[in-house]
Amino acid sequence: MTPDTPKTPDGPTTPDGPTPSGAPTTPNGPTPTEPPGPGRPLTRKALLRAAVAAGAAAPLLATGGAALARAAARPAGARTLPPTPYCDDGDDPTPDQMEGPYFKPNSPRRTSLVTPGTPGTPLTVSGRVLGRNCVPLPAVLLDFWQADHAGAYDMAGYAFRGHQFTDAAGAFTLRTVVPGLYPGRTRHLHVKAQAPGEPVLTTQLYFPGEPRNATDALFDPALLMDVRDGGGGRDARFEFVLDVDGGPGPTDPPTDPPGGTWAAGRSYAAGDRATYGGRAYRCLQGHTAATGWEPPNVPALWRPES
C-alpha cells in the first residue's frame, strides 16, 4: 500500500531461509513488541490472547471469552472482574509491527487468494475493523500478503497478495491457506489497514498453539487470531481496532465537490494521474475509485505530485 522500500527484514533468517527473487537483505530488525509484563499494562485483550496462546478453552469469544481468560490468569483470592465489551475496556489499538522485506504495492483487489487446487490447508480469516470507540469502520482498506504453504513469498507476481475494503458493518473475509514455516519465524499473516484519511497500520497476525511462537522475536500475543478447525480447513477471526474515532461515513455525493479529473466509479491503474482540488496525484495501487477515497484522503492509493 506504500511504495517505500522496506528497511528491515521479516525477522531473523538463516542461509536456509526463503530466497524469493528481488527480496532485499538487511540487518536484523528492531526490538520486537514486548508481551504484557511489568512495563506494559495487562489489558483484557492481551490477557485474552495470552490465554488462547497458553491453550485455554478454545471458545474465548466476546464477553464470555474475556471472563474465561480473566479467570484463567487471576491469582487465587483475587476479586472477580466483570466481563467487558470486546473492543474497548481501555485496551490500546491493535499493535503495529514491522513490514518486513516481502511487501509489494499494487496488489489485486480480491477477497480470495486461492483457486481450486491451490496446495495447503484452507484458511478463512474474517472479522471487523473498529474505531477505538467500538464503532465499526466501513471502507477501510486492508492489504494482505503471506508466504505460501511451503513458506515462500512470491516476489515475481502477486500470489497470496490482495487488498479489499470493509463493508458497511466494518466486516471483512479473506480466503487463503495456512502459511508455511521458514527459518526464524512462526506462522503469520501480514496486513496493512487504513481508514479513509487516516494513517496506515502495518501489523501481523498469528496462530495460537504454534511451537515457534515461543522463539519468534516478533511474536505478540495481542495479535493472536481465534482459530478453529472445521470444514476441511481452519477458520480464524480477528478484530482490528484502529486508533481513530468511528463516526458517520463520508457523504455520498460529497458536499461541494472540488473540480478535477478524479471521479468516483472510475478504474485507476498504478501510474495513472488525476487531479483533485487543484492538485495533481499519481496512483500507487490499482483500484476502483469510491466516494470517501478522494486522493487527499488515501495516501495508500494516491501520492501528490510536486
Q: Any overview of this molecule?
A:
There is one protein chain. By secondary structure, this protein is mostly beta strands. It is built from 2 helices and 13 strands; from the N terminus they run H-H-E-E-E-E-E-E-E-E-E-E-E-E-E. The longest helix is centred in the first third of the chain and has 12 residues, at 62-73.
Outline:
By secondary structure, the protein is mainly beta. 7% of the residues lie in helices and 23% in strands.
Helix content: under 10%
Could you give the order of the helices and strands? HHEEEEEEEEEEEEE
Share in β-strands = 15-25%
Low-pLDDT windows of residues: 1-42, 52-85, 249-257
Mean pLDDT: 75
How many helical stretches? Answer: 2
Strand line-up across the major sheet: 4-1-8-7
Class from secondary-structure proportions: mainly beta
Number of E-type strands: 13
Overall spatial form: globular
Described by its quaternary structure, the protein is: single chain
Biggest pleated sheet: 4 strands, mixed
Distance between the termini: 20 Å
* Rg computed from alpha carbons, rounded to a whole number of angstroms: 20 Å
Brief descriptors of the model:
single chain; 306 residues; mainly beta; four-stranded mixed sheet; four-stranded antiparallel sheet; 2 helices; 13 strands; 23% strand; globular
Strands, helices and their partners?
Elements: H1 44-53, H2 62-73, E1 122-131, E2 141-145, E3 161-165, E4 171-177, E5 188-194, E6 201-206, E7 226-230, E8 233-242, E9 267-268, E10 273-276, E11 279-283, E12 287-288, E13 302-304
Parallel strand pairs: 1-8
Antiparallel strand pairs: 1-4, 2-3, 2-5, 5-6, 7-8, 9-12, 10-11, 11-13
Helix pairs in contact: 1-2
